[in-house]
UniProtKB/TrEMBL annotation, chains A, B:
<keyword id="KW-0378">Hydrolase</keyword>
<dbReference type="InterPro" id="IPR027417">
    <property type="entry name" value="P-loop_NTPase"/>
</dbReference>
<dbReference type="Pfam" id="PF03308">
    <property type="entry name" value="MeaB"/>
</dbReference>
<dbReference type="GO" id="GO:0016787">
    <property type="term" value="F:hydrolase activity"/>
</dbReference>
<protein>
    <submittedName>
        <fullName>Methylmalonyl Co-A mutase-associated GTPase MeaB</fullName>
        <ecNumber>3.6.5.-</ecNumber>
    </submittedName>
</protein>
<dbReference type="InterPro" id="IPR005129">
    <property type="entry name" value="GTPase_ArgK"/>
</dbReference>
<comment type="similarity">
    <text>Belongs to the SIMIBI class G3E GTPase family. ArgK/MeaB subfamily.</text>
</comment>
């Protein structure tokens, strides 16, 4: 219904005379149209792929940020440039320690990353902090978005903080983060932190792109594991009991013992590394160095037994297949005809009117007919 | 190379005179050709879909078996009939208790199923035992294939034992088992056991088609969890410590306490059911009734809180999507052009000569071109 019709409707309604709305005038533009045109022209001056690659290899943070923006863009032309940049940066990537960090909200991940990050840069390392948080679109609450919690690190010239790409499926978000990781490495960052929230499937995605996986926990009343999703503890190469300060010290040390006992129940991972449990205080900056040393021990251990390189190779392969599988699904479920058919088929399956398999095959046949008839 | 050429090759080789092979005469057929023809003619008398559906609903085990053979067949025409049969049986299915059973080899699953099955049929229930064991093709070692371990149950007129479909991917094998389950229910079986080996991904498949998941364990020397894959214990609605007999009783009871403690570390599942740990002896047929009662308690509990029906619906939906996703992958990876391209692309990705994503997209583009050009 247009605005005009709406007004007529109200005017014609005898009981609603008080609601009579005069038709207004159009609002003037909030920006001088000439300036807007000039701004658009300015935007059009784009970097070439060469500019991007050179900028990234020179460690130019502004160019790196713009390249990552292209990686995160959903536009086809941006993706095309992004993929070229990644391809050219690939030979310069791989020379970093990739660390995954997770923990439930409230475990103090931001303050931990601040303390840990400052420790890392103080040793002369260059640190990039990325994130995978597919919930951030909904909640707008990506922890890294809130840089105020990382005041010192945010202004550290040897640190680069990039919030989670906010749009798309988990697979898409994870892919973008892994591509950004490659660009950060090419830009000279030798330590990459990838942060996520310990409440979902995103841990698996992070786990499949890092060398070391750190779980941040806090001491509770015996139910430390309740907050964390099933399976996440089994991925951890180390658990850090955070907030081990003030009146919390005894509780944190007790939690440490409990976690150590629990970890013994799990079979040893193929890395032949037995996960460590440590305590730390992000506020008092205590124990953060131990965590760094543990990561270095782990790298040495897995370098020596060959697991480090094997895993990197397996991860590259994994992402090839994962991208294929995700794209196959994406193409199917985003097909307009399929999208319209699915709700009805789902209802029939739920009501036992159609078997799951027949529903699947009918949808698949329709889909492949679609593909064949497309230009 | 034909046999004739092979012989020529040997005859022409001057150094291998001792190997000279006289060309033999063709072997007579091992079966009288006329009888073979008659047998073939007999085979050609096929049941119609109506025959199958009527036979199944009448509880005719021979017809049920033939229908399951069609379900398991890879032939297109068999699949077509099978799908029609399933569709017609679907309204008569769903009225059974579906129980998944897993445990590492050596835990005594076969003897347990024998004892448990006899208990179930002695109460007047009709029991079907199916299996998912994707390894059976390789090892020819499907436990259910070895019916000699279930002597009593194999001849019980109220029990039907069907070994695991032996060909295909896990997804394919699982799909076939779920379809067979529907036919068994339509044939009047009110208790379905689906058995699998606790060493891989097949547990997830079984878990997604049963109401109750039982893990069979045995007492060991404190490392009870070592044999079982990560994540499987978290799926269990009950753990049965088997072989609690003779000199093993104390150890089994200790193991029971250890498992109970370990289970407390996991968060409660959405069913709001806290997993039970029980001991039993399949040989002495002790504790088997407790396990049956526990399953009944579980069903009552989840009927009342609505979880039972919700989960069945979720499973039907899951299998629709799972079938679609699996078929999309299957079509892609079985495409001949793609099959030939993948090894080279994989090598390039492993050697960092190509990014995982570019490799994926190049393969995908080739694939969709293939699909469009196919008849």
């Amino acid at each position: 219904m247009s605005d005009k019709n709406k007004n007529e409707h109200i005017e014609n309604a005898p009981d609603y005379k008080a609601l009579k709305v005069n038709s207004g005038i159009s609002k003037p533009p909030s920006i001088n149209p000439r300036i807007a045109d000039r701004l658009k022209m300015k935007k059009r001056k784009k970097h070439t792929v060469d500019d991007f690659v050179k900028g990234i290899l020179d460690g130019n943070m502004a160019i790196l940020s713009q390249a990552i923006t292209l990686v995160e863009s959903a536009k086809f032309e941006h993706q095309k440039i992004a993929q070229e940049i990644i391809e050219r940066c690939l030979p310069h990537s791989g020379k970093s320690t990739r660390i995954g960090i997770t923990g439930v909200p409230g475990a103090g991940k931001s303050t931990f990353i601040e303390a840990f990050g400052k420790h890392v840069t103080s040793m002369g390392h260059k640190l990039a902090v990325l994130a995978i948080d597919p919930s951030s679109e909904r909640t707008k609450g990506s922890i890294l978005g809130d840089k105020t919690r990382m005041e010192e690190l945010a202004v550290d010239p040897h640190a680069y903080i990039r919030p989670s790409p906010s749009a798309g499926s988990l697979g898409g978000v994870a892919r973008k983060t892994r591509e950004s990781l490659i660009l950060c490495e090419a830009a000279g960052f030798d330590t990459i932190l990838i942060e996520t929230v310990g409440v979902g499937q995103s841990e698996t995605a992070v786990h499949s792109m890092v060398d070391f996986f750190l779980l941040i926990q806090i001491a509770g009343a015996g139910d430390e594991l309740q907050g964390i999703k099933r399976g996440i503890m089994e991925m951890a190469d180390a658990i850090a009991i955070n907030k081990c300060d003030g009146s919390n010290v005894t509780k944190a040390q007790l939690a440490r013992v409990q976690f150590e006992n629990a970890l013994h129940l799990f079979p040893l991972s193929p890395s032949q590394w037995s996960p460590k449990v440590l305590t730390c205080s992000s506020i008092e900056k205590k124990g953060v160095d131990d965590i760094w040393n543990t990561i270095m021990d782990y790298c040495k251990h897995t370098f020596e037994n060959g697991y480090f390189d094997n895993r990197r190779s397996e991860q590259a392969k994994y992402w090839m297949y994962e991208t294929i599988n995700e794209q196959l699904r994406d193409n199917f479920y985003h097909d307009n005809v399929i999208k319209n058919m699915i709700p009805d088929f789902e209802t029939k399956v739920l009501n036992d009117e159609m078997s799951s398999f027949i529903a699947a095959y009918k949808l698949l046949n329709t889909y492949y007919d679609q593909v064949k008839n497309k230009e």
